[in-house]
Amino acid sequence: MRVEVSRSGGFAGLRRTWVVQVEETPDPQAFLLLIEACPWDEPEPESSGADRFVYQVQAGERSATLPEPAVQGPWLELVDQVRHFSAGHGLGPVTTDAAPADAAPGEHAVNDAERPPGAE
Amino acid sequence: MGSRRLSGPRAKIGTMSKHPSQDPVRPAEQHTRDQRTSASVCAIVPPYLLERLALLDTGRLAPAAHAARGTLAHDAGFRATAFPWTEPSTTGQTALPSAGGTLVRTIGDAASAEVLPGKIVRREGDAPTGDPATDEAYDGLGATYRLFAEVYGRNSIDGSGLGLDATVHYGHEYDNAFWDGAQMVFGDGDGEVFGRFTRSVSVIGHELTHGVTQFTAGLAYQGQSGALNESVSDVFGVLVEQYQAGQSTAAASWLIGQGLFTAEVQGEALRSMKAPGTAYDDDVLGKDPQPAHMDDYVQTDADNGGVHINSGIPNKAFYLVAAGLGGNAWERAGAIWYRALTDGELPATADFATFAGRTVAAATDLFDTTAAEVVSGAWTQVGVTPGGAPDVRTAAAWVDPDVNS
């Protein structure tokens, strides 16, 4: 199973993405247990304040969008573990939410393309 | 650049606790999490996960639940508590001259944990501590207070002298500064992309202005109103810097967060109001993605609808107004924006066009039709047609014909 954590927002507005394949972690069963422990079906909480990070978490078919203050308990553990085991030991790529340079006028696709860890 | 580390994998994710008592486990948990270098998820299970597991009585997780309950009982004695805010000291306070208000700053030190407010290290009137983050936060709060008090006659963020609280050294290599709804919070940065977030006065002014917005227009932090919320913080953030330095519109950098990037990053700052999209162009971070025109508005689900991206459009409009009016930006351009934000006419869900209309009305009220034309022209240049009735009095009485029809 592929698990992706994408963090956007913050004062800088920079997006970071971390990806892990559960099968490639040292203890896949424990990882799956952690995924199951997350409250995927609970309503997405409202955020307060400003300049907080926003996390988008996807595990297989399930996904959740979480304001930073809601990343607690098993969510916090899952995010931490994905960052830890992400390729390059958690050095996830940085991307920005820019329209691609070659986008036609009127197209404003978000550049979510992952860059390889340590990309130059 | 290939060896540059972007952020440690053990960087902590934020928690928000306006009230320390709500967050009693963080310091103990921090200790636990820092130890966790094992490859196994189960090798170190944090208390909150234990608590969740302990509630599972049946099925395949029952043995884990039993073990979790035992571990929780064992760990109970290790829970620590956060430092509470205490009342500001009544001695040694120095009140700066202001519009009938008093400046009361309190700086907390989170000591690299994710706790708020942390240990109180400097109160109003205290001598500098020698810690750069603490003293920069203290000075930046003072500079921000002075702009709002001396130029706009506003007594602190709520208009009633609310104390200004900030926490520094928040989190481990924490790459952010934020307003949590009650106070400002500053991380130290990872040291490789970002340095400490208190280095730029514009950042401190930006965060405090989120408080002003919260107490006035209350712009919803999503989509265009969210981008306006961000832009207003950038506007008054740079004005704090310009007012402090006595810089005219022509002399100012119009950069947000200058000095935050380390020397390894190819970029001057995080954002440029004068030229959105040009603040940085780095081989790892990529290029500053801010648009300067509605044609380039970015539709995205991330970052509450791209609030830190699309703020480039109203940012550019403000710069154009300041350039068009000349002189010092805080005097006329700033006064127009301040009026639009605080006169009670701006809806919390305002889009760019609505806000533009309010700034045109404010320019008319405060100055003259020439100023209003400069404002209107600036918005037009960034692709926004000012909306709403130009006359405040008729706008207030206007009723949407589509509602209740």
Describe this structure in words.
- The complex is a heterodimer of chains A (120) and B (405).
- Chain A has 120 residues and is an alpha+beta fold.
- Chain A has one domain.
- Chain A is built from 2 helices and 5 strands, in the order ββαββαβ.
- Chain A has a 5-stranded antiparallel sheet.
- In chain A, strand 3 and strand 4 form a beta hairpin.
- In chain A, helix 1 packs antiparallel against helix 2.
- The radius of gyration of chain A is 15 Å and the shape is globular.
- Chain A starts with a strand and ends in a 24-residue tail after the last strand.
- In chain A, 52% of the residues are buried.
- The C terminus of chain A is likely disordered.
- With 405 residues, chain B is of the alpha/beta class.
- Chain B has a domain of 181 residues: Orthogonal Bundle (Neutral Protease, domain 2), CATH 1.10.390.10.
- Chain B is 39% helix and 8% strand.
- Chain B is built from 12 helices and 9 strands.
- Chain B has a 5-stranded mixed sheet with strand order 2-1-3-5-4, covered by helices on one side. Chain B has a two-stranded antiparallel ribbon with strand order 6-7.
- In chain B, helix 10 packs antiparallel against helix 11.
- At the A-B interface, strand 1, strand 2, helix 1, strand 3 and helix 2 of A face helix 2, strand 4, helix 5, helix 6 and strand 9 of B.
